What we know:
This protein is mainly α. It has helices at residues 9-12, 17-29, 37-64, 69-100, 108-120, 126-144, 169-184, 187-207, 213-220, 228-257, 283-297, 299-310, 347-365, 372-375, 379-393, 407-440, 442-445, 448-462, 472-476, 483-487, 493-511, 513-524, 532-538, 547-565; strands at residues 147-150, 153-156, 314-317, 327-331, 336-343. It has a 3-stranded mixed sheet, sandwiched between helices. The protein has a two-stranded antiparallel sheet with strand order 1-2. α4 (69-100) packs antiparallel against α6 (126-144) and α15 (379-393) runs antiparallel to α22. The relative contact order is 0.11.
Amino acid sequence: MSKPFPTTPAEIIHWQWADYEPFATELAERSLTKAGLKPWLADWTLLASWVEEQYTRLSIAMSVNTVDEEAHKRFENFMDTIFPKVMEVDQKMKEKLLASGLEPEGFEIPLRNLRAEADLFRQENLSLLGTEAKYGTEYDKIAGAQVVTWEGEERTISSMQQVGQDPDRARREQAWRLVAERQLADRPAFNELWGRFLSLRLKIAANAGKPDYRAYRWQNFLRFDYTPSDCRRFHAAIEETAVPASVRIYERRRQALGLDTLRPWDLAVDISGQPPLRPYQTLDEFKQKISAIFHHVDPVLGGYFDSLNREGLLDIENRKNKAPGAFCASLPASRRPFVFENAVGLHSDVQTLLHESGHAFHVFESLDLPYIQQMGTPMEFAEVASMGMELLASPYLATDFGGFYTPAQAARARIEHLEKCITFWPYMAVVDAFQHWVYENPEKALVPANCDACWADLWERFMQGVDWSGLDDIMLTGWHRKLHIFQVPFYYIEYGLAQLGAAQVWANALKDQAGAVRSYRKALSLGYTASLPELYRTAGARLAFDAETLGQSVKLMESTINDLRTKIQ
């Protein structure tokens, strides 16, 4: 039958199930033969691509304006009336392909994934998964509405990060406490939402016949190459290597600032005595300089970024009622990525755009794969694409390459980045270990006070070197401010593993930049045609959980920091 899909992406926003149904029904009922396999897979890809594009564009509309009621209504309509129907049809097609015994070329990994997804499918979970997505938008509404009045001006929480770089310590503390008080005001709202999230997830896991939600999520995330025990081993490796290195970083900061103790409002101010890094004045300048950096990394990657800018696929301005954070979304029917950020004039904006552009490059590199089941990638490797790009781009931050800074400023920026890489691992361990505790002890975790206590214990174990005395409430509710815990449970270990993979790619680049970039791009192009360990190997790295491998990367980062420090003294 003829393909019914829109000629422009704007049309898909308004589609209803009745628009999809004729094609979806025919596809699900079509006889599947060896000769007809490729066109059937192509049509499945077409249907899935437009459905995913509609979902993504509706989600983006809510993120760019969290108070757009029409956008919320369209999204809820999609989740209520289209999502369940499409999932039913998708399940029929998975079952049809698996029952046929046919194995398309390059489909070993996708077939493995389809078997796992088909095993998880339950009709009664469709409405629950839709409800879960709606809860996620509630989280964004709560967080997106958080503003404070600072010096007579209404400011977003993100924009207040600038004050955290002010040399005036009293001013930094005042701003930090103002933000903390505003965030604590939403403690009841986050706690109430948490109870609904957790109860819903326990039902979803039980419906799927899994012993607990972690087992459900492990299969849902297609984690075939490591276990919860490996995560605990990684936590221990971080405690052994990254925690002491973080303490050394914090101690150097304390001494440089001449403080008795280092407090949370002392972590962003520059210890060189120089003014804070202000990389750009306008968003156009920001994008132009990022483009120049990418063209130095690789001309093809630079071209990818330029196409995003040219086609209006970058929303990087921070504003009220814009969802917090940053992300890259894939628009598979348009065969393009979309990059979202909240830029407020800090160096962290640069790192964020490098990071999310790495995800965008992943989308571009995998476009030649013919079927949507091959175009995805394990999240543990998706983050190698983004974190690896941060490190691959780091030599080109200076104005010598069209970047943002003098050589001394670029050294400061690189030190800041590498220090954050090291200190991130302990924080990642807190977030991941917290989630393991939650879903190992769900009845206890339904009580927010127990979650507070668990978070505080993990914070004391991993986040050493900063004095939080007298700040208990804001510290122990830190889990409220990690959106992954609410919206994407168990999605955080990926960042820690990928940071280690990215560090290995960077180590290769220090010896052969061009060769490391070629291996990086080759790995990005493989999608789901290779296993997770194979993707790491192709990129020139190893999927690792041990203290020795992590320790090598920490040592390289610390030695590079020491070298860079000589350039700013």
